[in-house]
Amino acid sequence: MPRRFLLPQIFFGLSLWLAFTAQSLISAATHRTHAAGGKRQSFLERTLILLDVSTRSPVKVLNDNFLSLQVDPSILKNGWLDFLSSKRLVTLARGLSPAYLRFGGKRTDFLQFHNLKNLAKFRGPGPDYYLKNYEDDIVRSDIALDKQKGCKLASHPDMMLELQREKAAQMQQVLLKEQLSNLYSDVTITARSLDKLYNFADCAGLHLIFGLNALHRNPDNSWNASSALSLLKYSAGKKYNISWELGNEPNSYRTMVARSVNSTRLAQDHILLKKLLQSIHYYSRAHLYGPNIGRPRKNAILLLDGFMKNGGAVVDAVTWQHYYIDRRVTKVEDFMKTRLLDTLTDQINKVLKIVKIHAPEKRVWLGGVGPAWAGGINNLSDTFAAGYWINTTRVDVVLRHSFFDYGYSHLVDQHFNPLPDYWLSLLFKRLVGPRVLAVHVAGLQRKPRPGKVIRDKLRIYAHCTSFHNHNYVRGSITIYIINLHRSRKKIKLAGTLRNKTVHQYLLQPFGADGLHSKSVQLNGEPLAMVDSDTFPELKPRTLRAGRTIAMPPISIGFYVIKNINAYACRR
Questions:
Q1: Same fold, 48-59+437-569 and 63-118+158-434
Q2: Signal peptide location in the record (predicted)?
Q3: Which of 438, 431, 323, 427 shows the shortest CA–CA distance to 381?
Q4: CA 534 distance to own-chain centroid
Q5: Span 63-118+158-434: which CATH code?
Q6: What values do phi and psi take at 17, rounded to 5?
Q7: CATH architecture of the domain with residue range 48-59+437-569
Q8: % of the chain surpassing 90 pLDDT
């Protein structure tokens, strides 16, 4: 039976980034016509896929923080920043550590730092009938938090959360109007706000990456670093371990504010920021990432090329952003179109080509990635369906936009309940390590009609099992499989995987809503937090040695091969 080795590829799985780590995309079958007894087999008889993994050495080693998170500066406007001290939110974020936490987005370039402790006069608007009491509650909460040592955690009353959700809903309309019209108001971040943001990241075991305002400009269009320098000095005085960015999607500045920053100027701005960091003893070795361009179309690619050519290599990793679809998408089927999902592959290749020319040693990060533009689509980008993203990639880190409260494209909702992407991300963190293994498959598939490209919807990836998971010894392998077909697929473990005991973690939508569901089930059991501090037990189902893996339609499965003692995974 024919065999082939497939180049590394990645699935942006139910959490959008799930599969970015994967390097081993499998076309689930090779084309072959097989005669048995002189008769051609039926298509249904040709659905078995044989799977093997090369265990000698990894084909790539990803960043330990590969799957990382982002929160949008809009939380300063809508008031949710005051609730990042929630014990439940911190617990959920801690479940995805180790990871980076990027504080950035469209409003990065409208941030203004004020070294003030009292937030009251800078707080956003709220309904008059509760605003004063609401503000008083926030002040009382801040006072209580100040008395705590170490991680500052709070349990907010239900009424207070309900009022906040009402306020945030009203502000969301204002923020969306700004984004659609490209008319943005300034966003104030105070010392108190920065303290709360850092407390959240530190308590959750996340490394904060803070995006500075690049549109604060002098008359000659050079970057005005005064506000940034004040923020740097304050955070250094507090000994906050932070990495830094400058600006967000600089290729879109002309559209946003009728002002452009060319590639030479952009590189000079980053060089200036690097010098500022080096001038502050505490940040002399702090990391700087950039230039955070938008989707690499013509203008963005030209900007990136000029940036790297004119000194942009000063950054520690090259960053760019991507979203897949706009707000015109209204059907769940649109999230499943492979031709749309595959658009990322070409864009990654464009970015890597530029980086290879100017700084081949630089890592490339995909930041601010999400399923849909402008905060997503209600009842679509916050459901099980939004997790099916299949793409080729060779990026080192993927930052999911957003962990919490960004329209409808987030991992945790405003009731602090995990959405489907969260549970997939949690399983990924617990089971998948950074070492990527080569996958080999053999199988059968119908011969494509001339001129027609058949895009396969079965994806298979292999990694060493995470060393942080003490339920599995070193040498274990985790295989994860994404079945986008609307029919069951069978996979038979062969070669080095043959006759091994397997632990199955199968994720499917829970409830009658199907792909529209905002809940998931693991091996048939619905997943939900036990309480604010306790995750449910993620129990595997044991598959006996030699058993064929049967992947249900529209599902994602993690399969841990326990006793394989893979050489690539022992060290």
A1: no
A2: 1-21
A3: 323
A4: 23
A5: 3.20.20.80
A6: -120, -5
A7: Sandwich (2.60)
A8: 61
